[in-house]
Design brief:
- With 633 residues, the chain is an alpha+beta fold.
- The chain has 5 domains: 97 residues, GIY-YIG endonuclease; 141 residues, no CATH class; 115 residues, Ribonuclease H-like superfamily/Ribonuclease H (Nucleotidyltransferase, domain 5, 2-Layer Sandwich), CATH 3.30.420; 180 residues, UvrC, RNAse H endonuclease domain (Nucleotidyltransferase, domain 5), CATH 3.30.420.340; 53 residues, 5' to 3' exonuclease, C-terminal subdomain (DNA polymerase, domain 1).
- It has 20 helices and 19 strands.
- The strands form 4 sheets. Strands 12, 13, 14, 15, 16, 17, 18 and 19 form an 8-stranded mixed beta sheet that branches. A 5-stranded mixed beta sheet has the order 9-8-7-10-11. It has a 3-stranded antiparallel beta sheet with strand order 2-1-3.
- Helix 11 links the parallel strand 10 and strand 11.
- Helix 8 runs antiparallel to helix 9, helix 13 crosses helix 16 and helix 14 runs parallel beside helix 15.
- The longest helix is centred in the middle third of the chain and has 31 residues.
- It is elongated, with a radius of gyration of 34 Å.
Length: 633
């Protein structure tokens, strides 16, 4: 989301009165703070109230907030665990870093044992046992373990079976009918294992039958005036509800999953994707798409999965969707082949997995209802602006644009920049920097010729290597050089455009080239394409996108140039001449306009400078006429 069109006052009005996590971004879109809330609208509003004071650190953080987003959860407990996951994943500047999950208790079922137990654990280990959690209340966890053992009559001792069969007398639990007496050696392992499976179902979220049973017993005790026993059942019900409010945010199996769910309204749809990595939810993305009214939800999910995973570099082992799809097996087979490992698409029908899909759908509906207009505005600024530019210059489609700029100081330390916009947004990973190697002096045209020649020659070489090499996944070898643009946007008019066309012609490439023409005040006034200057409506999104592209090319080139000067990584060619130190270098630069003028000078001209002596003057002359003439560094 662009910060430019994010109006905090308007977005505050859309916050729901529901639990969840809020994520603060700065002007560079970096995550600077993650927090949880029982009520998102109440908590986030507090940050922007002048009377509200949470200390200097929070005050500094608020000053840097450019936008915020949020993820709705079903409980404050889930929000707490999600907050922890996101903090560890993104390490925001203004958050206190949590060390690990050891403060959150788990319930462990020791299925690695022949006669498993249900025990309390402070961490989830990667072993053959089953873990449920994490939870926030250790007391509620212990109450639930006690309840599970009572309901399903599971053992609580630490003995090793079958090694310890018959050693010692059965414990008190056996005599109280709370344990079947595994230690006697008379309990069938298969029957006991069935009890364990029922207990894991209960811990996994299937707790309604147990709650119903406890309520019936509580009501029966009340009718019989046994109020103390009724209170005991009431407390147990509360403990169950506290603890089996299953954690959808963290899964005990530690697998990588994507949760995909959608919400529709006529021809508009939002698809929400939750990313679970290593069993922890670490983020989400939503995608606004146009659909036909007659499209079923299964059709929308099928279309999205095929388009989304065709372009994403990572494919998880499991994908959960909210409805079964007719071509589900085909898509799973395609993803399996693409990943090289089995990929499964599931439609959960009950338990925590179903709740997780419901949560994704809930967030999708909220985005659709509250953010529809903002998302459409954003698309107008990006994809819509690209379509507008394509229409202006008569192209059918533009997805990738590249722009270039040259930066130098009086011809010294010349550098070039390449910036890339894809679908109207900066693709910063594809930006590239160039040090000019073959051009003497402040010659922007020839510097641009070098940059473009190097860029597209490199791209052609990479494409040739990819064609000659072994077959791989589609696009696996494409880099920022081997991916060619749909149009090149040159910072200037006819001259810059002609340079680009000459380079492309020499390399046998046919790529449209468009000039971004400026007026006398160095402001963009139109586009130069196919020997015609095309005026642009300055209030249009296409014009604004061109301006952003120009500004980004300038910024990237200037920052590169400054960094090289600041680190002294690019030096004057005069530094390579023996006998020329800082004082003589400055004197030469004051006396001559540039390398070309020095090249025309004689030894006497150099001697005319007070700081020069005979040997130094001869060295400079020899540099231009007898030795290396690479003055571009």
């Amino acid at each position: 989301m662009s910060n430019e069109h994010f109006i905090i006052e308007e977005e505050l009005k859309k916050l729901p009165d529901q639990p969840g996590v809020y994520i603060m971004h700065d002007e560079r879109d970096a995550i600077i703070y993650v927090g949880k809330a029982l009520s998102l609208t109440k908590r986030v509003h507090q940050y922007f109230q002048p009377s509200h004071d949470e200390g200097l650190k929070k005050k500094q953080m608020v000053a840097h907030i450019a936008r915020f987003e949020y993820i709705v959860t079903d409980s404050e407990l889930e929000a707490l665990v999600l907050e922890n996951n996101l903090i560890k994943e993104h390490r925001p500047k203004y958050n206190t870093m949590l060390r690990d999950d050891k403060t959150y208790p788990y319930i462990c079922v020791t299925v690695s044992e022949e006669y498993p137990r249900v025990i309390f654990s402070r961490r989830s280990k990667k072993d053959s046992n089953k873990y449920f959690g994490p939870f926030t209340s250790a007391g509620a966890v212990r109450d639930t373990i006690d309840l599970v053992n009572k309901i399903y009559h599971l053992r609580t001792c630490n003995k090793k079976f079958p090694r310890d069969f018959g050693k010692g007398r059965p414990c008190l639990n056996y005599h109280m009918d709370q344990c079947p007496g595994v230690c006697t050696g008379k309990v069938d392992a298969a029957a006991y294992g069935e009890r364990v499976r029922e207990a894991m179902g209960f811990l996994g979220g299937d707790y309604k039958p147990v709650v119903k049973m406890l309520k019936e017993k509580m009501e029966a005790c009340s009718l019989e005036m046994e109020f103390e026993r009724a209170a005991t059942y009431r407390d147990l019900i509360e403990s169950v509800m506290d603890c089996v409010e299953k954690q959808k945010i963290t899964s005990y199996d530690g697998e990588d999953k994507d949760i995909v769910a959608a919400a529709t309204d006529g021809e508009d749809a939002v698809v929400q994707v939750f990313f679970i990595r290593g069993g922890k939810m670490i983020g989400r993305e939503h995608y606004f798409i146009n659909v036909r009214v007659e499209n079923e939800m299964s059709d929308i999910l099928s279309i999205f999965l095929k388009q989304y995973y065709a372009g994403t570099p990572f494919i998880p082992r499991e994908i959960y969707v909210q409805e079964e799809m007719a071509d589900e097996e085909m898509i799973a087979g395609w993803l399996t082949e693409k990943k090289g490992k089995k990929v499964t698409i599931l439609t959960p029908k009950r338990g925590a997995k179903e709740k997780l899909v419901e949560l994704a759908a809930k967030n999708a509906r909220m985005v659709l209802e509250q953010d529809r207009e903002r998302i459409k505005r954003e698309e107008g600024r990006t994809i819509g602006a690209m379509k507008e530019i394509a229409s202006l210059i008569g192209l059918e489609h533009i997805e990738r644009m590249e722009a270039y700029d040259i930066s130098n100081t009086s011809g010294y330390q010349s550098v070039g920049s390449m910036v890339v916009f894809e679908k109207g947004k900066p693709a910063r990973s594809d930006y590239r920097k160039f040090r000019i190697k073959s051009v003497e002096g402040p010659n922007d045209y020839e510097s641009m010729r070098e940059v473009l020649t190097r860029r597209f020659s490199h791209g052609l070489e990479e494409r040739q290597k990819a064609d000659d090499g072994p077959e791989t996944e589609a696009g696996a070898k494409l880099t920022s050089f081997s991916k060619f643009p749909d149009v090149i946007m040159m910072d200037g008019g006819r001259g810059q455009v002609n340079i680009a066309l000459q380079v492309l012609g020499d390399l046998g490439l046919s790529i449209p080239v468009c000039g971004m023409v400026k007026d006398d005040h160095h402001r963009t006034r139109g586009l130069y394409y196919d020997n015609v200057e095309i005026p642009i409506d300055k209030s249009s999104e296409g014009f604004k996108l061109i301006t952003r592209l120009q500004d980004e090319a300038h910024r990237f080139a200037i920052e590169f140039h400054r960094s090289l000067r600041g680190k002294n990584q690019v030096k004057s060619f005069l530094d390579d001449i023996p006998g020329i130190g800082p004082a003589r270098r400055k004197a030469l630069m004051r006396s001559f306009a540039g390398p070309e003028e020095m090249k025309q000078a004689k030894v006497e001209d150099f001697l005319a400078i007070p700081e020069m002596n005979q040997k130094a003057a001869e060295n400079v002359y020899e540099y231009f006429h007898g030795g290396s003439q690479d003055v571009s560094s």
